[in-house]
Amino acid sequence: MTHDEALMASALEASAAARIDAPPNPWVGALVVDAEGVVRGLGVTRPAGGPHAEVVALAEAGPAARGATLVVTLEPCAHQGRTPPCTEAIVAAGIARVVLGVRDPDAHVDGRGVAALRAAGVAVEEGVLAGPVSRALAPYLWHRRTGRPWIVLKVAATLDGVVAMADRSSQWITGDAARQDVQRLRAESQAIVVGAGTVRADDPALTARLPGRTLEPLRVVLGTAPAGARVRPCWERSAPLEDVVAELGRHGVIQAMVEGGPSTASAFVAAGLVNQVVWYVAAALAGSQRTLGALADLSTATIAQLRRWKLTSVEQLGDDLRIEMEE
Length: 327
Ligand SMILES: NC(=O)c1ccc[n+]([C@@H]2O[C@H](COP(=O)([O-])OP(=O)(O)OC[C@H]3O[C@@H](n4cnc5c(N)ncnc54)[C@H](OP(=O)(O)O)[C@@H]3O)[C@@H](O)[C@H]2O)c1
Fold this sequence. Notes:
Elements: H1 3-15, E1 29-33, E2 39-44, H2 53-61, E3 69-74, H3 86-93, E4 97-102, H4 112-119, E5 123-125, H5 130-136, H6 138-146, E6 150-158, E7 162-164, H7 176-188, E8 191-195, H8 196-202, E9 218-222, E10 236-237, H9 241-250, E11 255-258, H10 262-270, E12 276-282, E13 292-293, E14 310-317, E15 320-326
Helix pairs in contact: 3-4
The structure holds NADP nicotinamide-adenine-dinucleotide phosphate.
The site of NADP nicotinamide-adenine-dinucleotide phosphate (NAP) has 27 residues, from strand 6, strand 7, strand 8, helix 8 and helix 10.
């Protein structure tokens, strides 16, 4: 690993602290490093409306930023948004060189940040640890490129893929550690989507119970939720899923989590709208007699049509497995 890559790895690690509160802004990490290689400033994106990571790092560095290198995971903005352009702050602070992870595909940025810095005489090195940075920012980059949220399908099932028993009881199939992990996934999502069947069966609260978390995700019910249900849908509809997803994207939802049930999960998979699957597997067996499979409404005509995914991580959480897959 080169020195620049090692610094980028630190900026990337720091950016994780902004993952939950930064959206609809990207969760960015930035370091100001002096000529001796000493880190003089560290910043991560503050909650929306607050300063961007670069500005936080520059403020911490103060006069030490003059002639220093700024290492930042995402291209700095060059436009006036809720905060002034970061490129101006970088130039004004006297930064000599910027080391960049990936360009920002947002229509307001998209290379303009790099161009503004170079025009001001700042050296720019691009694409440092671009792979890991792109993976960490995948939902943001996807949203800005397509206008649609990154869709995460979450399933909690037995080893044989069952999500509800013959009497339709389903709480809880997985243990505490897996359910705590679901809370984090919810907190990272700006919307949670469930079908009306799940609301009728379980009346879930769908809250993100994490300490320090202030904004609750938008709770979206497809179909007709019963009166008095705990979930208060912001959109309640049976519109084509593509339209629902596009509308969420227009409302600044970067990541939406689909929490089931089987009809809804099947519909999202069949429509090809799922970017990532997070599948919790309990070390338990239910059998298929009158039980409900995780994708009960989905059918595969022949082996050549099997939907295959790329396995991206497998982790043990208590007595459960957490399996992550991407398209
Ligand atoms: N273990 C788990 O992770 C988990 C998670 C969730 C649910 N579950 C279990 O799943 C069961 C409920 O299953 P379900 O299949 O009935 O629930 P569902 O997918 O939550 O709800 C199905 C309903 O969603 C509405 N809907 C609207 N647009 C839709 C679309 N494009 N595609 C599909 N549905 C659409 C329809 O409601 P209308 O009839 O009002 O039009 C439909 O009847 C419960 O027993 C629950 O406990 C388990």
